[in-house]
Give the backbone structure.
Amino acid sequence: MLTNSCHFPKGVCDPTFSSIEEYLGRNTQDYYKVLAEVGQGKWNPQNGTRPWIRLNLIAHYRQAGTALRRARMIRNCGKNWNEKYGNMVVRPNDLRAI
């Protein structure tokens, strides 16, 4: 499975953030449909794997888009914070509330 396969510079694509579990959790029925289609109840090497591979590639693509949107949102929050509060010192405990 492709869930831990990521080809980016170190630190850019931590496996924690490249997992497709979130996507699969939102698309559970699609996951089980493809699993039933490919597996047909048991391991059979003659069954085609194309639907399974397609599902995984789509999941990685869409999850990457979600991660990118979140990263941009966080960056913008930091930028807005700096513009509004400048060099204000924030204690680590205060960050949890933010």
Notes: The chain has one domain: 15-97. The radius of gyration is 20 Å. Residues 1-12 have pLDDT under 50 and may be disordered. DSSP finds five helices and no strands in the chain.
